[in-house]
Write a structure and sequence with these properties.
By secondary structure, the chain is an alpha/beta fold. It contains 9 helices and 9 strands. Strands 1-2-3-4-5-6-7 form a 7-stranded parallel sheet. The chain has a two-stranded antiparallel ribbon with strand order 8-9. α2 runs parallel beside α3 and α8 packs across α9. It starts with a helix and ends with a helix. 34% of the residues are buried.
């Protein structure tokens, strides 16, 4: 398999049963819309041999009490099943708002996250205002990151093509800073046996699943030809290289 030959050690897929046998370990993903969903997912995914699961939790319309019920269920299911569950920072979920997520962390300091920071960077238009102050405020989340979805966006688009690992545009620098903070937070707070996966998540314009076409609108298409604006395979390895640079910078500081 090309991924294995390239040094990738794990793959995340919504339907792992669709994948052919390979030496790669599998990580899961799921949705928690009701408290009982968390334990069901943890049990099923552990039995399937997955190593951890990232979760979209709720719709974003929940009250604080409803958020507490869902987050508490995720933490309890992870402990009960001895299986890592990480709540993703994602639009249209309980973590769509930075302030409410920080309040959640205060109430549940044991929560752990999958950082897909393009949702916040674009959804909150983070460059509108003092972005350094925002990074500092977000540190409690960075400290609890145990999985990272690699994708870089602008203040107006959640996923854009990069010119390479040396791309020095301002928004790329902002993601480098957030990724370094996640890595530093992990280094400072993780248990000795924990690892920090970095998973490029470059989604297509549309995706066919079981004969149903889902319009995702991520990697934009050129008008006329319908071709995507970049090669997502090549872009994934650009993101890997940037993440490796961030880790080396931390290690040498």
């Amino acid at each position: 398999m090309a991924l294995h030959k390239a040094g990738v050690v794990s793959i995340q897929h919504p339907f792992p049963q669709m994948l052919p046998p390979s030496p790669l370990t599998l990580t899961g993903m799921g949705r928690v819309d009701a408290p009982d969903d968390a334990d069901r997912i943890a049990k099923e995914h552990k039995e399937q041999g997955l190593v951890c699961t990232t979760l979209h939790v709720g719709s974003g319309l929940e009250t604080d009490d409803q958020i507490d019920q869902l987050v508490s269920a995720v933490i309890e299911a992870s402990a009960k099943r001895d299986y890592p569950l990480f709540i993703e920072t994602h639009r249209a979920t309980t973590t769509q708002d930075i302030r409410r997520t920080l309040d959640m962390v205060e109430r549940f300091p044991d929560v752990r996250f999958n950082a897909d920071l393009s949702h916040w960077y674009t959804g909150h238009e983070m460059t509108y205002g003092d972005i350094a102050a925002k990074f500092n405020a977000m540190q409690p989340v960075f400290d609890r990151v145990r999985y990272m979805h690699g994708r870089i966006g602008t203040p107006c688009c959640a996923q854009v093509a990069l010119t390479g690992a040396s791309d020095d545009r301002e928004f790329v620098g902002h993601f480098r800073e957030m990724w370094r903070r996640c890595m530093q937070g992990f280094s400072s707070t993780a248990e000795p046996d924990e690892v920090l996966p970095f998973a490029p998540e470059l989604l297509p314009y549309e995706l066919d699943v079981g004969g149903t076409t889902h319009k995702l609108y991520y990697m934009r298409r050129f008008s006329g030809s319908g071709a995507e604006e970049s090669d997502r395979w090549e872009q994934a390895f650009v993101l890997f290289e940037i993440a490796e640079q961030c880790w080396r910078e931390l290690s040498s500081s």
